């Protein structure tokens, strides 16, 4: 059973009509389902167990780093994959076990590394020699050893949108395979570094299993080679990237994904790490919005809504599709009209959908932008001096505001006038 479905003609999240929440908190707002997140986590973990794979699922916080989301997943058993000091602090604050935290990202600063070392995290995924040198220096100064994974760039085409593809030789991410041996040699002479793991992450929203298979096979073969050469590796990190259904994609099912992992793990004795982000939260959230005006242009109908690209940038940034669903269930035989669904921001890019067939919508009608749980609220800005969309978490028939809408005063007072202007 989906966490978002019509009951008695009203779109519900778990046991609550979204319209009731809209009346209480106002629009636009993000709404997440606890059940959908926990189900996604459990299905991921069950699929691995069924394929005989043992490992830790480190939720990639960047998909949705609300404290309540991190904690919901941590309670289900998840660790965290973080890419900044801020995310590391969020993970620790939410109670994630430091021994389940992986620190990824191409540009960790020494000050950020120090926070990770102090917390005693599981591993730093290192992507360049200068980064390895910096980590060694910080660890030496602190008198600790830094656990390192080399993030490999397997030169595999993830066949996803160019802006979220990370595993090709021309991408900024990872170490190309021929250079890894040199990294291993460097690591031997650098103090306070322990190379324990190899990692990949080839991109996001993958809808085809074959790039995973290729990347995992290359990773596993390199792992064997380095281990045979005497490098004491203990972990292998398969990254994230598993796609979800936004429209009519058919992402690999979990058993196929787990099968790709278990094939790569044949003959390997290693702990596994996974870094899913989108898969755990993407379909667990919606963005609820109100129609402000219906504007009939010369040959187009525009629905002008109160959510905009500052709330959910995915359509403008990645040409992404989100299903748009009226909260009030339309009649089964209602006729559909193609509409352009746009926000109020002064940019033509502030468009959520073009020529989308929708039932008759009037001003005041509420709509849900589906699959907005990942890379939604975390990418929001206050462009056009718009207030942030609050975030709501639902569990059964309860809901809580887990991030509130700030008021205009708070937003504007973030600016500080210099002395010469304030006088
Ligand atoms: C973004 C990212 C992830 C999560 O990707 P999803 O597509 O959301 O699963 C995992 N690992 C790393 C290193 C990332 O940068």
TrEMBL record:
InterPro entries, alphabetized: Ala_racemase/Decarboxylase_C, DAP_deCOOHase_LysA, De-COase2_N, De-COase2_pyr-phos_BS, Orn/DAP/Arg_de-COase, PLP-binding_barrel
N6-(pyridoxal phosphate)lysine: residues carrying this PTM: 62
Pathway(s) where this gene product acts: Amino-acid biosynthesis; L-lysine biosynthesis via DAP pathway; L-lysine from DL-2,6-diaminopimelate: step 1/1
GO BP term, example: lysine biosynthetic process via diaminopimelate
TM ranges: none
Pfam families listed in its UniProt record: Orn_Arg_deC_N
Positions that bind substrate: 278, 314, 318, 347, 375
PROSITE patterns, per the entry: ODR_DC_2_1
GO MF term (any one): pyridoxal phosphate binding
Keywords: Amino-acid biosynthesis, Decarboxylase, Lyase, Lysine biosynthesis, Pyridoxal phosphate
E.C. number(s) listed in UniProt: 4.1.1.20
Catalytic activity: meso-2,6-diaminopimelate + H(+) = L-lysine + CO2
KW Flavoprotein (keyword) present: no
Gene3D superfamilies (UniProt xref): Alanine racemase (3.20.20.10), Lyase, Ornithine Decarboxylase, Chain A, domain 1 (2.40.37.10)
Active-site residues, as the UniProt record annotates them: 346 (proton donor)
Binding site for pyridoxal 5'-phosphate: 241, 275-278, 375
Names of required cofactors: pyridoxal 5'-phosphate
Matching NCBIfam families: lysA
HAMAP family xrefs: LysA
Entry similarity comment: Belongs to the Orn/Lys/Arg decarboxylase class-II family. LysA subfamily.
Quaternary data: Homodimer.
Function noted in UniProt: Specifically catalyzes the decarboxylation of meso-diaminopimelate (meso-DAP) to L-lysine.
Protein name: Diaminopimelate decarboxylase
Species this protein is from: Kiloniella litopenaei
Gene: lysA
């Amino acid at each position: 059973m989906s966490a978002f479905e019509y009951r008695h003609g009203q779109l519900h999240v778990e046991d609550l009509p979204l319209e009731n929440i809209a009346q209480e908190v106002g629009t636009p707002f993000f709404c997440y389902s606890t059940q959908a997140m926990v189900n996604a986590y459990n299905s991921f973990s069950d699929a691995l167990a069924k394929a005989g794979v043992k490992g830790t699922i480190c939720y990639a916080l960047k998909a949705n780093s609300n404290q309540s989301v991190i904690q919901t997943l941590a309670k289900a058993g998840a660790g965290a994959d973080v890419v900044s000091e801020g995310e590391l602090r969020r993970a620790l604050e939410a109670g994630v076990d430091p021994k389940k935290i992986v620190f990824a990202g191409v540009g960790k600063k020494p000050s950020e590394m120090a926070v990770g070392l102090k917390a005693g995290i599981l591993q730093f995924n290192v992507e360049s020699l200068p980064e390895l040198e910096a980590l060694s220096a910080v660890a030496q100064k602190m008198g600790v050893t830094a656990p390192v994974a080399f993030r490999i760039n397997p030169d595999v085409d993830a066949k996803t949108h160019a802006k979220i593809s990370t595993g090709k030789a021309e991408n900024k991410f990872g170490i190309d395979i021929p250079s890894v041996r040199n990294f291993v040699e460097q690591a031997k002479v650098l103090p306070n570094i322990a190379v324990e793991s190899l990692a990949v992450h080839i991109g996001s929203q993958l809808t085809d299993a074959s790039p995973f298979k290729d990347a995992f096979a290359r990773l596993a073969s390199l792992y064997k080679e380095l281990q045979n050469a005497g490098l004491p590796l203990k972990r292998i990190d398969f990254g994230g990237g598993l796609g979800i259904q936004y429209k009519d994609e058919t992402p690999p099912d979990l058993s196929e994904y787990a099968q790709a992992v278990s094939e790569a793990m044949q003959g390997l004795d290693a702990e596994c790490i996974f870094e899913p982000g989108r898969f755990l939260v993407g379909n667990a959230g919606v963005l609820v919005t109100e129609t402000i005006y219906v504007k009939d242009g010369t040959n187009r109908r525009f629905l002008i809504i109160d959510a905009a690209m500052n709330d959910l940038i995915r359509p403008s940034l990645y040409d992404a599709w989100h299903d748009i669903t009226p909260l009030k269930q339309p009649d089964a035989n209602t006729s559909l009209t193609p509409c352009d669904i746009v926000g109020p921001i002064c940019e033509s890019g502030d468009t959520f959908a073009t020529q989308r067939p929708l039932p008759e919508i009037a001003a005041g009608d509420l709509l849900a932008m589906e699959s907005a749980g990942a890379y939604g609220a975390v990418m929001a800005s206050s462009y056009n001096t718009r207030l942030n969309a609050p975030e709501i978490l639902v569990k059964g028939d309860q809901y809580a505001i887990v991030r509130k809408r700030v008021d205009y005063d708070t937003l504007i007072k973030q600016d500080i006038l210099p002395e010469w202007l304030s006088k």
